[in-house]
Amino acid sequence: MAVGDTITIEYSWWGDDSRNQYTLDAVDIFEKENPEINVKCKYGVWNGYEKRQHIYMKSQETPDVMLINYGWLDTYSSDGSGFYDLNTLSDYIDFENYTEEELAFGTKNGRLNAVPIAFNTETFYYNKTLWNSYGLSIPRTWDDLFDAARIMSKDGVYPLGMTKKSLFFMLLSHYIQTTGNDPVKSDGTLNLNKEQIGDMLDFYKELLDKKVLMSVDSFNRNAFASGEVGGTLAWVSDAGGYCDPLKENGYDVKIGEYICEPGAKSLGWFVKPATMYAISNNTEHPEAAAKLLNYLLNGEEMTLRQGTEKGVPISSSALAVLDEHDMLTGFEVQADAMRKENSDKLSIMAPILESEDVYGSFKSDSDYYLYDKLSRDETIDRIYSDMYKK
């Protein structure tokens, strides 16, 4: 490449307006520091991004650097060949910021497909003011939730509300705690039979019937912020999005323990990368892509703008920057501390559990039973078929 020539690489991510703006600002600085590299940014909200990513992967036209979801390693790179092997770019990416265990989350068949940005665990967040007003302690067991529902429901208040993905992981944790069974086989494939799916469906219906859980279709973040529900379950990386509005509305926030059945052999809750960065297997400019990826993960300017918005960063250099600038504060940091305190009890999530076919099918198919469209057995058959479809 002649002096003064530039190359163009594409970088894609999903997010809201705030994420988009700080990312664009950070990329501008990267381009100034690397005048030979022009970065074309492609971004959008989650749903549209996910659909476009599927098209990109199928057509082999993926952006050079991309933000990916953990589950996509299983969907698009089951044999490890779906993304560029980052091990070969160690001259440009500072892997000293990560342990082998941390990088293992992005490794498939010996190929480092992606680097995790932060860790995520489904975590309980409570409106402590509301619970105190009923003379109730923050729940620690499933029975605590049912006891609270008997009191709160008289005022039309639910102990919990959450999204469909969080719902699935909560039901899964209860299943693991009460049975001791692993929902995933050693080869990473699903390990739920019809009887076990039926047990999860029954517990889901009980949560709804006894007013423990607000309907997933009715729940949104405002329901938590306004006090319609006493608590929610969400990722560590989403802690601020749920808890900051609650605090702004004058309520006290409490991060709760992972709900557990007394005497359970396993805690039943999972840890996984929040999001990850990968490089296209078809990139024509791997070195330039690696420079950008390293900047996004470890660069000071990106770190200062991103803060803990994507979760508490894993990169040791990014953590050092945030610590130096007194930026390791907020609900994400508190939730991540809960994760660290329980790290020896949390199970590593298998990517298959984040498949839309799995968690999405459970919720949508369950509606047929909950709204009397299908019998219990017919609904279980439908869930099983959709979870295991190829």
Structure overview:
This protein has 390 residues and is an alpha/beta fold. It is 44% helix and 14% strand. It has 16 helices and 13 strands. It has a five-stranded mixed beta sheet. A three-stranded mixed beta sheet has the order 7-11-13, with no helix packed on it. β4 and β5 form a beta hairpin. α7 packs across α8 and α8 crosses α16. The longest helix has 17 residues. The protein is globular. The termini are far apart. The relative contact order is 0.17. The model has no long low-confidence stretch (mean pLDDT 94).
Strand-residue fraction?
5-15%
Give the uncertain stretches in residue-range form. Answer: none
Order of helices and strands: EHEHEHHEEEEEHHHHHEHEEEHHHHEHH
**Whole-number mean pLDDT:** 94
Sketch the major β-sheet: 5 strands, mixed
User: What is the count of helical runs?
Assistant: 16
Radius of gyration in whole Å, from Cα? 22 Å
Class inferred from helices and paired strands: alpha/beta
Number of strands: 13
Pfam family, one: SBP_bac_1
Protein name: ABC transporter substrate-binding protein
Organism: Coprococcus aceti
